[in-house]
Amino acid sequence: MSLTRRSFLNRVAHLGGYSAAFSTMNALGLLGNAEASALPPLSSTLGQGKSVVVLGAGIAGLVSAYELRKAGYTVSILEARNRPGGRNWSVGKGTDVVFTDGTKQSCTWEDGHYLNAGPARLPSIHKTILGYCSELGVPLEVEVNVSRSALLQSDKLNSGKPVEQRQAVYDTRGYIAELLTKSINKRALDEELSGEDSKLLLDFLAGYGDLDKKAKYHGTTRAGFVTPRGAGADQSKLHDTIPLHDLLVANFSKAEFYEDQIDWQATMFQPVGGMDRIPYAFAESLKGLIQYDCPVSEIRKTASGVRIAYKSGNESREVKADFCICTLPISVLQGIPNDFSPAMQKAFHGMPMAALYKMAWEAPRFWEKEHNIYGGISFLDQPVDLVWYPSDKMFSKTGVILSGFNAIGDEKGHLTALGKIPTMQGRLESSRNSVNLLHPGCGQHLTKPIYIEWTKVPYSIGCYANNHLDESQAAYSQLIQPEGALMLAGDYVSRIVGWQEGAALSAHKAVAHIVSMTKS
Amino acid sequence: MSLTRRSFLNRVAHLGGYSAAFSTMNALGLLGNAEASALPPLSSTLGQGKSVVVLGAGIAGLVSAYELRKAGYTVSILEARNRPGGRNWSVGKGTDVVFTDGTKQSCTWEDGHYLNAGPARLPSIHKTILGYCSELGVPLEVEVNVSRSALLQSDKLNSGKPVEQRQAVYDTRGYIAELLTKSINKRALDEELSGEDSKLLLDFLAGYGDLDKKAKYHGTTRAGFVTPRGAGADQSKLHDTIPLHDLLVANFSKAEFYEDQIDWQATMFQPVGGMDRIPYAFAESLKGLIQYDCPVSEIRKTASGVRIAYKSGNESREVKADFCICTLPISVLQGIPNDFSPAMQKAFHGMPMAALYKMAWEAPRFWEKEHNIYGGISFLDQPVDLVWYPSDKMFSKTGVILSGFNAIGDEKGHLTALGKIPTMQGRLESSRNSVNLLHPGCGQHLTKPIYIEWTKVPYSIGCYANNHLDESQAAYSQLIQPEGALMLAGDYVSRIVGWQEGAALSAHKAVAHIVSMTKS
C-alpha cells in the first residue's frame, strides 16, 4: 500500500481505535445497545460539601462541571481563554484569531457566517454529545458529509480536470464487479466459493456493478450524465467511463473511503449557527462558575486535595478543592509545574500532537447553482487536498467554503506538501488554487480568508494527541489513570480522540472516579 | 439474476431511461452543464392576445401556466380536485382520503405532521424543480435518504433479527475485496490486468475492503460496534462479521443499491412542511387562474384552437382557447371523449400504470433515541419491505413513520406479496409487523394509520405510467407528439418519469411548442 494511503487509512480507521479481540465478541448482536458512558445514576446530594476545580472549559471540562454540579458538588472552572469551548471554536464576525507567533487575523464575514475551526460534525452514533444537545436545547441540522456531485481532481486523470465523485465511485465498482465475475467464471475461486454461493455472488455482482447481460461494465446511469435527461425524445448522454487504469493511477481512495469511516457515516449533524452553540449552552447553564482569562500556572496536590495556581490579568491567585479534573492538552501540561507522578510527566511527552489546519473563505455559492453541489466534500491531488462545502444556509447568496483541512506535518513531524509552503499567504494561495481547479474561474470570488493552524493556537498547541499510534499506547495507559484527587479528562484519554464524544465520555469517567472516591 | 432483483433493478435503473448510444458520447466531459430544459428565453409580450387552457394543476400544469403567463399568454387552469398539486399531495391534519371505491380515511395527526403521499424527495441534480423552489421562495431542508444505522431484515439471516445496514454494506465489500485480491494473486486476471494495474488494484482493494496485512477480511470498524468505544481502557467490541453465504442468501441488493440510483444519490431535499408547499406556492402565484372542482368531460379541437367541456358542481361548462396543454394521466384520458388522433387514443392504453402505495403512522420517535436512526430507510424481506424514517423535525417527540412504499401489482398486473393481502386492514397490520420486526415492541406505538393506494385515488388512477418498459416505447413516441393546438405534458412524456423534474421539463417542452406556433 502506498505510504500516503496507508498513512491516511491508519489515521482515519484508528482515530477511534478498537479492540482486535474478535474471538471474545458476542454473537451477532443487535444495535450496540451497550452504553459507553461510565457515569452511574447520581443523587443530587451526593457531592454535598465536596469541591471540584475543573481546568479548562472545553467539552470535557464543561461536561465534568455540568454533571458534578447536578450531583451536588461545588464546582469551579478555570479557563485560559475569554470564551468556553476550547477547540470547539466557531470563528465569525468579530473573532480575532491570534497565533502564538503574534500573527493576528480579524474576521469580518457577514453576520451568521462561521468556520468551525475545530469539530464540525456530530455523528448520529455519538449519543452522549447528541444527548447533551437535546438536554441543553441546542438546535441541530443535518450536516451533509457526502454529495455525489462533489468533485475529484488528480493531475493524473482527465488532463487534471475534475470528475464527479459519482463517476469514480460507480466506474470503480463496475470494474471490480466485472473482474470478480470473470474470476468466478474462470473457476479461479472454486476453492473459496461453493457452487450455490458462486451463482448468488454472480447475481449480486451484476447489480453491484450494473453490468450488462454479458457481465461487462460499460457505464451506468449511476455515474451521471453529460447531457441530462429531459422531456420528449431522449437526448441524454452518459459520462464516458473512466478507464480503470486511470482511476487506479489517480488513487481516489481517500475520497472513496472517507464516508465509510464509522464516525463519518450518515447521518451527521451540526448545531444551527455553529458548533460553539454547544459550549455556549453549557456555559449558560454553568453561569457564574467559569472564570475566563485565567490560565493555570501550577497544579499541586495537598494533604486533603488539590491546590491550583492561576493568573487573572497580572494577578496570581490560587484555588483549593477536594478534587481536580484537568482537561488541559498534554502539549500545555508539559510547561506547567505540577505534582503529577514522574510516569505521568513522561506520558505528557508520549503522544505526538496532530498538526491540523483549516482555511476558509467567504464567497458567493457558485458550487450550488452552477455545480449542483450542496454540502459534501471534493478531493484533490494538491497541497490543499480537500474542499468542503457548507451545509448551512443552502440556497442563500453567500457562504463559507472550506478549502484546506488536513495536516501541515505528519505524525513523525515531517511536513506535508501544504506544510512545505512557508508562509500563510502562500498556503492561502494554495487554498484558492484548489477551488479554482475544481471550479474554474471561481477562485477569484473567494474573499476574506481565515487561516487556522492548531499548532499555533494558544492553549491548544496542536489539534489533538495522536493516541491511536502504536508508540502512543504506553503513554495512553498512563494518562487514563487517576492520581488520587487529580485526574485527566479530554478526548485524548478516550478511544474516540478528536471528537467531542470522546471528551464527554472521558468527563463521565472522571466524574465516576470522583463519585467512587466520595463514597469510599 | 433472480426475478425480484431484476425487476427491481429494471424499475430503478430505467425509471429515468437513458440512451445506450455510448459511441456518440462526448469525450469525458465536465459536469453535465448542458441544460435539459426546452424553454427558450421569452419576452413578456410574446403571447399577448393568445389564450391557453391547461388541464390539471399538478406540477406539469402549474409550470406550464406559470411560464405561459410570464410570456404574456392568457391562461386558465381546470383542476378536478379541490387543491393544486395532483400527486404532489401532503396528507395531514384535516385531510380526507377518499378512494374511488368510497373508502374514506380522515387524518387526525398533530399539526405539522404530514405524509408526502406522492413525491417526497428533491434530488439536487433536478435543477428545474429546485429552480422553481428558489424562484417561488419555498424553503427546503435536507432529506436524509441514507442512514448507515438503518436496518436490514431477512428471515434467512441472523434468525430473522435485523442487522445494521453498515454491517451488510461493509462486510460485503470486505469479502468482495478479499476474493478479488485472491483472484489477482492466483494470476486469474493476468489477461485483464497489467502488472502495474494489478499492483495498484491490490493496493486499492486493501483499503476498499479494510483487509488485514494478509489481504483477509476479518471485520472492520466501518461495520460498527456491539459495545461502543469509550474513555480509558478500551472495552469496545466490533460486530461479528456476517458470513458471506448468509449475506448472499439474504439478498440485500435492493437496500444496497437504492442509494446508488442517480435520482436517489446525496444530496436530496424536501420542502419544509411537506412537498405540497411547491404546488401551493405556484397556486399562490397563479391566484385566480385555477378553477378547482372542475373535472374535464370533453377535449375538442376547433377550427381555431380547442374547446374543453367540464363540470362545475352539477353544471356543465366549456372554455375555448387557442391552445391546450393537457396534463391528465393516460388512465384518466382513456375515459374522456376527445379529439386526439386514433394513434393517440391507442397510446393512452399503451403504457401500464404503476400500482404504488404508501402507508404511514404517527408515533413517538423510538427509532431516533433508541436506535440512532435519523432519516434513511430500513429494508425487510416481508410483504411491507421498507420503513422510511422522517427527515423533518428530528429530535422532537413524535413523527410520521412510513412503513410500506412499493407496488401492490407488478408491471404485468400480478399482485405483489402486499397486493395479495386482500384488505386495507390486513395491509396495515403487515405495515405494523414490519416496524415491529425492526424495532421489537415498538409496533404497538404506531397510531392513526393513513393508507394511500394510487390506483384508487380519483383523477390519478395509478401512480405513474411505466414509460420505461420496452413495450411502452411505441406509445411514448406517440404521446410526445403535439397534435396541433393540443399537446400533452406530465412526467410520463419525459425521461424522468415519476419525478417532478420530468413534469416540469415536459411543461417546458409544451410551452416551447406553443411559442413556436405563436411565432409561426
Give the mean pLDDT of chain A.
93
How many helices of chain A? The count is 14
Largest interface: A-B, 127 and 127 residues
**Distance between termini of chain A?**
52 Å
CATH topology of the largest domain in chain A: Polyamine Oxidase, Chain A, domain 2
Q: What form of chain A results from the Cα inertia axes?
A: globular
What is the beta-strand fraction of chain A?
Answer: 15-25%
How many strand segments of chain A?
A: 24
Q: Which CATH C-level class of the largest domain in chain A is it?
A: Alpha Beta
The description of the largest β-sheet of chain A is: 7 strands, mixed
Kindly state the percentage of residues in helix of chain A.
Answer: 25-40%
Radius of gyration of chain A: 25 Å
Structural class of chain A: alpha+beta
Stretches with pLDDT under 50, minimum 5 residues of chain A? 8-34
**Multimerization status:** homodimer
Q: What's the architecture of the largest domain in chain A in CATH terms? A: Alpha-Beta Complex
Whole-number tally of structural domains of chain A? 3
**What is the spatial order of strands in the main beta sheet of chain A?**
10-9-20-21-22-19-23
Describe this protein's structure.
The structure is a homodimer of 520-residue chains. Chain A is α+β, with helices and mostly antiparallel strands and 520 residues long. Chain A has three domains: 49-81 and 279-351 and 467-519, FAD/NAD(P)-binding domain (3-Layer(bba) Sandwich); 92-150 and 265-275 and 354-456, Polyamine Oxidase, Chain A, domain 2 (Alpha-Beta Complex); 163-250, Up-down Bundle (de novo design (two linked rop proteins)), CATH 1.20.1440. In chain A, 28% of the residues lie in helices and 21% in strands. Chain A has helices at residues 3-13, 59-70, 127-136, 165-185, 195-209, 244-250, 253-258, 277-285, 330-333, 342-347, 366-369, 424-438, 473-479, 500-519, and strands at residues 51-55, 74-78, 90-92, 96-98, 104-106, 114-116, 122-123, 140-143, 151-153, 163-164, 225-227, 237-238, 268-271, 290-291, 296-301, 306-312, 315-321, 323-326, 355-364, 377-380, 386-388, 398-409, 447-453, 486-488. In chain A, the strands form seven sheets. In chain A, strands 10-9-20-21-22-19-23 form a seven-stranded mixed β-sheet. A five-stranded parallel β-sheet of chain A has the order 14-2-1-18-24, covered by helices on one side. A three-stranded antiparallel β-sheet of chain A has the order 7-13-8, covered by helices on one side. In chain A, strand 1, helix 2 (59-70) and strand 2 (74-78) form a beta-alpha-beta unit. In chain A, helix 2 (59-70) runs parallel beside helix 8, helix 3 packs across helix 14 (500-519) and helix 4 packs antiparallel against helix 5 (195-209). The N and C termini of chain A lie far apart (52 Å). Residues 8-34 of chain A have low confidence and may be disordered. At the A-B interface, helix 1, helix 3, strand 8, strand 10 and helix 4 of A face helix 1, helix 3, strand 8, strand 10 and helix 4 of B.
